[in-house]
Specification:
- It comes from Halosimplex carlsbadense 2-9-1.
- This protein is an alpha+beta fold.
- It has two domains: about 55-325 and about 645-680, D-Maltodextrin-Binding Protein, domain 2, CATH 3.40.190; about 355-635, Dipeptide-binding Protein, domain 3.
- About 25% of the residues lie in helices and about 20% in strands.
- It is built from 17 helices and 26 strands.
- α2 packs across α4 (about 220-235), α8 runs antiparallel to α12 (about 470-490) and α15 (about 595-605) runs antiparallel to α16.
- About 45% of the residues are buried.
Length: about 700
């Protein structure tokens, strides 16, 4: 195969270029305007020196046979689209703050670029509380066919999305956005301008989070979305809308509807510095994207081709272990799938950071009679070795237990609250503290009989614990919880479920058929944690309403979907811990204030709060969580990136170039922003 590749014979029906083969000539910059010359340049560029490779390889969990850019199909086969689109913006991995077009990043690792300026699709935004915000788009943005990638294209895409979600004839529902001009998209929350619509005045901090997105579906070309938008507009009844939707969801945007040559000439999607120039570059093993020299980020890089290997699961891991992939995300740990021992010497981790928006929580359903008891919840947390749960599930070097018990991850806790406030809060044990656990169970009215905890009525204490079977980390972490509790004398019925059954068990529309489970946790903004949210896919401090819409709680409800009381007495002092023996769901406390939790989290999202008022709302939520531990946030991820250090030069580990991400990883920023640099030699330091 290697000989065939060197001879230029492709084995996969795609490009005959083997990875890094150099079979495509490198343009030689000339000093006379580009019409020949001796190859010398007046000023150095990123392509001035001869690189050892012209191609960088990544893998996406998709295949050319099913790839479909259409985001409205029932099966999500769009994976890989973000590599074929402009960066929306740059989110800081430490602070979660976003930066946009024109951000300058030092690049001392480049021999001819001390810094690069990164173009992103969003150039900035304005916010006008209580309803409006404006996204400004970079006027250099273009689809691959040269048409503007602008606010008008985005509005058309979003309007189709609005109709496809069933809003054509929904009372009180309006499409709240408009292209003010070609490059400015105006959004607003509900203003109550139509019957049955309540106004939704919103705080500046929330409006800012809606503006300038870093993630989301890249808008499809208006040639695709505009006809569907007009069909929806013309639909006279619900049946006509359904007919349009049926056509939309079955309409596949395959790779040949995007390619410049050899496709259908539609070019219905794709933007950004690497483009699909020919269907000859699409094979069963990989697709090769070629640098678009007209893109502003193209001048930052000397890497001419981006190869996306079609691979997931075991195949992807094999490519990593064989060194085929040049860049990927994740920490290189002492255990797990990607270890130093499994990688070639030239593939090394080059940065690692504590992920500000990624972690896990032990989610608890208070409808279980044991979990209703405050002292039982506290006892269970103390009995479990959370360091072991984290290490056994995610790897000792891939995660870190949280330091603060506020329901937030540590980055948000430390940026939101003063050090003095955090120091006063109660800190639950991260290593198993059986002495505390026993004392708390006794205060709950439980006793041990033959090594088994029993409740005040003599019933054995046990709960169900579920985990997603498709996540080895969740399964191994949950098994550690079961082992800890079983050894301590508390029964655990452990089950693993496939995605559909597991997610259904957490859906309030299906009755919340679970006691406890391992669940992801992490958002960029504090108000996203301190929120009433019953949707199964994102855990808020307060659940939804069991009497109305399950997704939003009502201040008049007695409990949320998970059985947690809406009105609770919250201690006035941070770190207060004392409670009555056998405390139930609503203990009577000293030195506490009765708080309606729904009103509290709703007030956070309302305009007009002073900074101190906003802080006090945050502190109330933190004191509530710290005292009641309705769930338990136990760790967050250590993330990283690793790649080929022989053929590519990367920034130093602490460089600001590693501070930015899109969609849970930094590889696309490194490559699409032009930060990655193909090396001019093959020298590298072997791993220690």
């Amino acid at each position: 195969m290697g000989a065939a590749g060197m001879a230029g014979c492709g084995s996969n029906g795609g490009s005959t270029d083997t990875p890094g083969s150099g079979s495509t000539p490198t343009p030689t910059p000339s000093g006379d305007g580009g019409d020949g010359g001796d190859g010398e340049t007046d000023s150095a560029t990123a392509t001035a020196a001869e690189p050892v490779t012209r191609q960088i390889n990544y893998a996406v969990a998709n295949s050319p046979d099913v790839f479909n850019w259409n985001p409205w199909t029932p099966q999500d086969n769009t994976i890989g689209d973000l590599w074929m689109s402009d960066l929306h913006g740059l989110r800081n991995v430490h602070t979660t703050q976003s930066s946009y077009s024109g951000t300058t990043v030092p690049t001392p690792h480049k021999p001819d670029h001390d810094e690069v300026e990164i173009m992103t699709w969003i150039s900035g935004f304005d916010v006008e509380p209580p309803y409006d915000w404006y996204d400004h788009h970079d006027d250099r943005a273009r689809y691959w066919n040269g048409d503007p990638y602008d606010a008008e294209a985005r509005e058309a895409h979003n309007h189709v999305n609005f109709f496809q979600q069933g809003n054509k004839f929904a009372e009180g529902t309006t499409f709240n956005q408009q292209a003010e001009d070609q490059w400015t998209l105006h959004y607003w929350t509900n203003k109550g301008d139509v019957p049955e619509q309540d106004p939704d005045p919103t705080a500046r901090v929330v409006l800012r989070s809606n503006a300038g997105p870093v993630d989301g579906d890249p808008p499809i070309h208006p040639d695709y979305t505009t006809p569907y938008r007009e069909q929806y507009r013309d639909a006279a009844n619900a049946d006509a809308v359904s007919s349009v939707t049926d056509e939309l969801v079955s309409d596949r945007i395959s790779l040949d509807r995007m390619a410049e040559e050899g496709g259908t000439d539609e070019m219905l999607a794709g933007s950004g510095p690497y483009m699909l120039k020919s269907m000859d570059d699409v094979g069963s093993e990989r697709v090769i994207l070629r640098l678009n020299e007209d893109h502003p980020n193209a001048e930052n890089t000397n890497i001419e081709r981006l190869a996306l290997y079609w691979a997931e699961g075991d195949r992807r891991q094999t490519l990593i272990n064989e060194g085929v992939l040049d860049v990927d995300s994740g920490a290189v740990t002492s255990s797990g799938a990607t270890t130093r021992e499994t990688l070639p010497d030239h593939v090394q981790e080059f940065t690692r950071w504590l992920r500000a928006t990624g972690g896990d929580v032990w989610q608890l359903n208070w409808q279980n009679e044991h979990l209703q008891n405050l002292w039982v919840r506290r006892a269970l947390i103390e009995a479990i070795d959370w360091n072991a749960v984290s290490a056994n599930g995610w790897g000792e070097d891939a995660s870190q237990v949280t330091q603060h018990d506020t329901f937030l991850l540590d980055a948000q806790s430390e940026s939101t609250f003063s050090e003095d406030f955090l120091d006063q809060l109660h800190h639950y044990s991260r290593s198993s503290n059986v002495e505390n656990a026993n004392r708390y169970m006794q205060r709950a009215g439980y006793s041990k009989q033959g090594g088994q905890w029993v409740d005040p009525n003599g019933n054995p204490a046990s709960i169900d614990l579920s985990s997603r079977s498709g996540s080895p980390a969740n399964v191994q972490g949950a098994q550690t919880i079961r082992a800890n509790l079983a050894e301590w004398g508390f029964g655990v019925n452990f089950t693993t479920m496939g995605w559909n059954n597991w997610s259904t068990s957490l859906d309030p529309n299906e009755g919340l058929n679970y006691d406890s489970t391992m669940f992801w946790h992490g958002d960029p903004y504090v108000f996203q944690y301190y929120h009433d949210r019953g949707a199964w896919w994102d855990l808020g401090l307060v659940g939804g309403s069991p009497t109305g819409s399950p997704y939003n709680a009502d201040p008049e409800d007695e409990v949320d979907t998970q059985g947690k009381p809406i009105v609770q007495q919250v201690p006035d002092e941070p770190g207060a811990f004392e409670a009555p023996d056998e405390a139930g769901v609503s203990p009577d406390l000293d030195n506490a204030t009765e708080v309606n939790l729904v009103e509290t989290v709703n007030a956070i999202r309302q305009p007009g709060n002073s900074e101190e008022e906003q802080q006090e709302l945050y502190r109330t939520c933190a004191r509530y969580y710290n005292f009641y531990v309705p769930h338990f946030v136990f760790h967050q991820y250590l993330m990283g990136s690793y790649g080929d250090v022989r053929d590519f030069d990367w920034p130093d580990p602490s460089a600001r170039a590693f501070d930015y991400e899109r969609s849970f990883g930094i590889e696309d920023v490194l490559v699409l922003g032009g930060i990655a640099q193909a090396s001019t030699d093959e020298e590298f330091e072997p791993p220690q």
